[in-house]
Write a structure and sequence with these properties.
Number of strands: 4
Shape: globular
CATH topology: Rossmann fold
Largest sheet: 4 strands, parallel
Strand content: 5-15%
Order of helices and strands: HEHEHHEHEHHH
Oligomer: single chain
């Protein structure tokens, strides 16, 4: 197999793989969203694709083309949808897209469809779309299964203590912060400009949302916490924790044979 990524393999190799009893496809999802002045708009999509690729090699899966657009960025998790560069989908569109793509993979014969989320705001809409896809497949007589997860849910407490020795403040303010920046420094260092990191205190967020959005409620940088302590070494700790735990969980849940795909 020349690659685990669908867009890089031929139809014959693809068909041969789908015929396996444990054929599994991972659909990485992200967003086109600002991540401050030091990182590109495609962070969420790039990270979910890279993680999906490494997990796929571990469990013998293939990776679908990444969803590069996600649900609207929210002030309390992504800085807000008003930010320049953030280009979003509405709920109905995202639900429909994931439903149709997942249903198509199931109809082609995939036994397992895994949706790997890389953008916080996507989750509930991915859930709805995947639920509808599986319901339709069951009605058609399919025995396909599906899993939905976000990669950060596999970062264990020990890793958090190593990555955030000064104390972990929570996932809700990690937008553009140490976690994402460290992973990008590891996986796409050429796209990170650490000299442009804005070092400011963590955002003080309310426990509710206000409409219309008020840009003054979130830091002007677009990040919800500082990335000054981000390093590629911390990115490696995060990547190792996620790929190991996620791969093991999927292998157990889906009864995979763990036949790793040999990439030419």
């Amino acid at each position: 197999m020349p690659s685990v990524f669908l867009e890089e393999i031929d139809a014959q190799s693809y068909a041969s793989y789908v015929s396996r009893m444990d054929s599994t496809v991972i659909i990485p999802t992200g967003a086109t969203e600002q991540h401050g002045p030091h990182m590109p708009l495609g962070v969420d999509a790039m990270l979910s694709k890279a993680i999906a690729g490494q997990v796929a090699q571990r469990i013998g899966a293939l990776v679908a083309p990444v969803f590069s657009y996600g649900y609207k960025s929210q002030p309390r998790s992504g800085g807000g949808n008003h930010r320049v560069g953030t280009t979003s989908l509405g709920a109905g569109t995202l639900i429909g897209k994931i439903e149709e793509i997942a249903a198509s993979f199931m109809a082609q014969g995939f036994k397992n469809v895994v949706v790997l989320n890389g953008h916080f705001e996507n989750y509930q809409f991915l859930y709805e779309g995947l639920d509808k896809a599986v319901a339709g497949a069951l009605q058609a007589g399919s025995t396909s299964r599906a899993v939905l997860t976000s990669y950060w849910d596999f970062v264990d407490e020990q890793t958090l203590e190593q990555v955030f020795p000064e104390g972990f403040l929570g996932w809700d303010i990690e937008h553009g912060g140490v976690l994402e920046t460290s992973l990008m420094l590891l996986l796409h260092p050429e796209l990170v400009q650490m000299d442009r990191v804005v070092d400011h205190p963590p955002a003080t967020l309310t426990s509710y949302d206000v409409f219309p959005e008020d840009p003054a409620r979130t830091p002007a940088s677009g990040c919800l916490s500082s990335a000054k302590n981000a390093t590629a070494a911390r990115g490696q700790l995060l990547l190792d924790a996620v790929t190991s735990a996620l791969g093991a969980s999927l292998g157990q849940e889906l009864n995979l044979s763990n036949q790793m795909i040999e990439v030419d």
